[in-house]
Every structure is written in structure tokens, then in C-alpha cells.
């Protein structure tokens, strides 16, 4: 399991970086978002398979679900060797122009690569013209420190907002709220997550990243406020009736 989580942690970094480096500039936002789209689609699939009528049996269901993760792992092992290396990485960091051009040609399926190669050359000169920072120097430098903590805060915000609690404990939350079919409600939560991801993926390059993040965080804050008020009212009503547990 620890090896599995090591891979999950690495893929959350490597996959978006790879997708961003192989995608055309005008489609970079949409293609990079495909990683998150695949993640939420997998969450919905697991929610459906976890239903009692399918693989939600307490004795053997979770073993089958855990074993099914072997299928995408085998698929990736078989297909990844045929994927080209990132042309940006080859051109800028490995300084191998020939391999970079060949990899870019495999991805674009065209011979006219001059514009993108010129873009890589400009980016390479910009990177080489800048001073290299060590980790301690990044923290000491005011501008770099601000950028570092901003990026950390952006990545922390969805996790601190409680999305993990919703995904992992949604069925228990629906049971506590006395929803008649809590497992089915969890499936609809996955559907809502998938539809919202598709919608944001479609408009991310038109609306912009910052606006979507601000709107999303405001929406989460409002919804969590409503949920908290609802549970407080529920707990108050149960307390008046002599019921001390919200989940009973």
C-alpha cells in the first residue's frame, strides 16, 4: 500500500507537468485539466462499483475493488514505453535538439515545428539568463518566497476546504443527514463532481484560472456554511428530543 501511495503522490506532480509540456499553448489549460478529469471519473466509477448491488459486499467487495487497480497499472506499463519524452525537457534541459524535434513531431504529426522550436529556444535563453536559486536562497529572496508560499497556498486550499472529507465520508454524512439512500446520494455527488470538472475544463482557457479559483472557493465557503448550519439545527432538534448523537 505504501508503494501505491508513493506512486499516487508522484503522479499528481508528474502527469500535469508532462501534459503541460506536450500540449500546444492554446490548448494547455484544457489538456492539463484532463488529469483531474480522469481522477474524478475514476472516483465516480468507484462510487458506482461500491454500491451494495454491485461490489459493496462487506466480505469480498473491497478486495475486488482494490485488486481492480492492477488493471490501469498494467495498461500504463504496456503503453508508457511508446509515449515520447517531453520535447520541452529534451530541448531546454537535456539540450538535445534532434531528439526534441523528433518527439515533438510524434506528438504534433506535422513537419512544421519551427514556431514551437523557436519558442523553446527563447524559453531556454530566458532560463539560462536567470540566476539559479538554491532552496535556502528561494526562502530568503522576497519575490521568490512570495511566489513559493502563494503556490503552496493554492495547492493547499482545496484540501483544507475539506474536499477529502466529502469524498471519503460522504456516505456517512448522508446517513447522518437521514438521507434515504446514502450510497446512491454518494454516486450523485460523484456525478456532480464530474460534471463540474467537465464544465471548468471547457471554459478554463476562456475565463481564466484566477477567476475560476475565486468563484470555486466562494462557492465552497457558502455551501459549507449551509451544511454547518443544517447540522447545527439538526443537532439542536435532536438535543431537544433527548437524542445526543447526530448519527443515530
List keywords for this structure.
mainly alpha, 248 residues, single chain, 12 helices
Number of extended strands: 0
Secondary-structure content class = mainly alpha
Measured as a percent range, the helix fraction is over 70%
- Average residue-wise pLDDT: 83
Alpha-carbon distance between the two ends: 33 Å
| Largest β sheet strand count, sense and barrel closure | none
- Low-pLDDT parts are none
Q: Determine the number of helices (DSSP H or I, runs of at least 4 residues).
A: 12
**Large-scale geometry:** globular
Q: Give, in order, the helices and strands.
A: HHHHHHHHHHHH
Beta-sheet strand percentage?
under 5%
Radius of gyration: 23 Å
Describe the structure.
The relative contact order is 0.09. The longest helix is centred in the C-terminal third of the chain and has 32 residues. 78% of the residues lie in helices and 0% in strands. The radius of gyration is 23 Å and the shape is globular. The chain is an all-alpha fold and 248 residues long. The mean pLDDT is 83. It has 12 helices and no strands.
What secondary-structure arrangement, pairings included, does this model have?
Elements: H1 2-22, H2 28-49, H3 61-68, H4 70-79, H5 87-93, H6 97-108, H7 114-129, H8 135-140, H9 142-160, H10 163-176, H11 182-207, H12 209-240
Helix pairs in contact: 1-2, 2-11, 5-6, 5-7, 10-11
Compact description:
With 248 residues, the chain is mainly α. The chain has helices at 2-22, 28-49, 61-68, 70-79, 87-93, 97-108, 114-129, 135-140, 142-160, 163-176, 182-207, 209-240.
